[in-house]
Amino acid sequence: MWGNHRNHTPAAPPGFGPWGPDARADTPNEGVAVIEFFDHTADLGFRIRARSLPGLFYLAARGLSQALFAKPPHKGARWLEVRLRAPDLETLLVRWLGELLYLIQTKGEVPAGMRLRLCRKEGDWALQAHLAVAPLDLSQMGFLGEVKGVTFHGLSIERRGTRYEAAVILDV
Amino acid sequence: MGLAFEKVAPFTYRIPRQGKMRVEAVFFASESILQQLSAEDYASLKQLQNVATLPGIVAPALAMPDIHWGYGFPIGGVAAMDAEAGVVSPGGVGFDINCGVRLLRSSLSRAELEPVKDKLADILYARIPAGVGSERRDVRLGRKDLKRVLLEGAPYVIRLGYGVDGEARFIESGGRLAGADPERVSPRALERGAPQLGTLGSGNHFLEVQYVDRIYDQAAAEAFGLFLGQVTVLIHSGSRGLGHQVCQDYVERFLARLPAYGIELPDRQLAAAPIQSPDGQAYLRAMAAAANFAFANRQLIAHFVREAFETAGFSPRDHGLALVYDLAHNNAKFETYGDRRVLVHRKGATRAFGPGHPEVPREYRAVGQPVFVPGDMGRYSYVLAGTAGAMAMSFGSSCHGAGRQLSRAKAKKLARGQDVARALASQGVLVRAKTHATILEEIPEAYKDVAEVVRVVEGAGLGRIVARLRPLIVVKG
Questions:
Q1: How many whole angstroms separate alpha carbon B385 and alpha carbon B363?
Q2: DSSP string, B226-240
Q3: B476 in A contact zone (CB under 8 Å)
Q4: What angle do CA B338, B343, B346 make, to 5 degrees?
Q5: Residues from chain B contacting residue A153 (CB–CB below 8 Å)
Q6: Fewer CB within 10 Å, N- or C-terminus of chain A?
């Protein structure tokens, strides 16, 4: 099992706000970070662009959240920590979204905010996330449909100038 | 960007070998399907070309007429790999391992059902959990029992009382794929699957109560026990979170091992390992376990359908619900064609064995294996029979559905402002769904006309149209 969760005390980690300061420094309002859903006949795809890797992973989480819910929660009831490692960034992104899917669809824990950290560790990429999670409420959150999995199809994380970009296709 | 292909037979097109393709590709289409493929810039046919680059593929790489753009493999793709020298690709099976459809026939006529249709729709919706994270509270199997489900599939849950003695032989492979090993399934996959046994799932999964509105082949319809005006039930579901996790686990595992096996891929979702390698064998054992879970899942759903009919006021003798057949459209199976043993990947394609095949139940052997082709919730679905043509041309495969023509976003946009459920009710179709979004995404216009798809299947010789079924009640996640 590659996921590693730890329950937190109810108090937020220092400097932690809804969807996290790391990510909020790179929000769409600043004209840099973008989530664009694109047409995929059978499944669901979105492109993301951000100024930092944590920003990109944050947007991927938001993209997944928007794929699942019309009204994703903005306030968490408790905190979780997720730690993941992968040999490359694309695998880390797939594991990250897979982990969130597991939390949402199996554990009923919907991320409402997060703080992310990425670094290289012994040749791997490592991600540490603090998640504020809310209990799954299908009607309140406007559930849009199940996501079966996160694909590697056409997935590559590229740096273009000052931005990181990726396109994610979900099996729905 | 165009794509070079040529017509080689009625409804049959060939893409010659080019680039890194190891074999040629063949697809089946009509003029209108060709136009749809062109409109998507042949994205799905390019995926078929990618499939043709996989090591050990036996000619040709194939796509059924419901082909559409998937991930890795196109939906509707069929690839036979040499059992000794070929590879197995979890992406060629898909996330929803052994997703499939099961048809139940009843002794009831449409007229007998009409007075209780509303009530039955509500009972079905209440008894069969559908949407995300849906869990059955009345089926709680311990870890030991769950592992037996993975090992033994549908026959195990029939023995527990969820079915009728002897009906497993009307399930593809007897409802149990050999070689399953629960120890090859990750703890997370087991955790995801455990509470979902006997649940439908969301998206395009459904349960439909229908009636037979047209018979095209009387002899085959009689063999399948179908008659005009008869009430039937079609169930579409798969291996739920358990299968999804098995796919995810093994795609990642195979990607890490690609350099060791010297496999180069045009698309990482095609991740593959040699069939005879420890990795390949481990996936096949885990996949078989997930497939058995899916067979058991549809078996349980059918059991609760029977119970729902009884709650609605029909005794078992009255409703007479019996299994016509249960078949899969997402798996990889060892089969023999001529003197060659191959592993046939079917991703959104149905096994369609022709008359005389020993794996077809003896009651159907003279006419061929039943093949079910769901359409959309507003129009119709079809029952076909497998043919000798499918055995000769498509590794015993046929189509699996209508195929989407609109993305979910486009479907929702088209449906905006419409009361889809009310419009369907006015046509006599009652819809019960967990979410409004699902109804919008699944509007009839989102799908190709399945009549065109089965016309191509029959025209190309891959199947014979037997009967048409129209929906009365639709339950969706």
A1: 13
A2: --TTEEEEEEEE--H
A3: no
A4: 110
A5: 70-72, 267-269
A6: N
With CA atoms as reference, report the closest residue to A164 among A60, A61, A66: A60
Give the tokens for residue A116.
């992310």
Q: Compute the distance between CA of residue A167 and CA of residue B23 in angstroms, rounded to an integer.
A: 30
| DSSP-based three-state secondary structure for A95 | helix
Domain span at residue A136 reads 5-10+19-171
**Per-residue confidence (pLDDT) for residue B134, from 0 to 100:** 64
Examine the residue annotation and report whether B436 is marked as an active-site residue of this protein. Answer: no
Q: Is the ipTM of this complex over 0.90?
A: no
Catalytic residue among B68, B244, B357, B400: B400
Contact B94 A171 (CB under 8 A): yes
CA of B71 vs chain A CAs: smallest distance (Å): 5
Residues of chain A contacting B251 with CB distance shorter than 8 Å: 152
Helix locations, A7-110, DSSP H: 21-24, 53-68, 89-105
B contact residues 28-67, partner A, Cβ 8 Å cutoff = 40, 43-44
Angle at B406 between CA B329 and CA A65, to 5 degrees: 85
Question: Which residues, 6+ apart, have CB-to-CB distance to B13 below 8 Å?
Answer: B5, B6, B7, B26, B27, B28, B29, B34
The CATH number of whichever domain residue A136 belongs to comes to 3.55.10.10
- Taking CA atoms, what residue in B is nearest to A171? B95
Q: Which of A148, A157, A169 to mutate to test the interface with B (most CBs of B within 10 A)?
A: A148
Query: Which among A153, A157, A168 is the top mutation candidate for probing chain B, defined by the most B β-carbons within 10 Å of its own β-carbon?
Result: A153
pLDDT at B397: 98
Give the DSSP letter of residue B131.
S
Backbone angles phi, psi at B17, to 5 degrees: -60, 135
Q: Which residue ranges form the domains of chain B, and what is each CATH number?
A: 6-476 (3.90.1860.10)
Tally the domains of chain A.
1
Mean pLDDT of B161-183: 96
Within an 8 Å CB–CB cutoff, is residue B188 touching chain A?
Answer: yes
Shortest Cα distance, chain B CAs vs residue A4, angstroms: 12
Say whether pLDDT at B424 is over 80: yes
Percent share of chain A, pLDDT over 90: 60
Residue A122 has pLDDT above 50, yes or no: yes
Q: Evaluate whether B105 touches B224 at the Cβ level (below 8 Å).
A: yes
Phi and psi (nearest 5°) for A2? -100, -10
Distance CA B372, CA B344 (A): 19
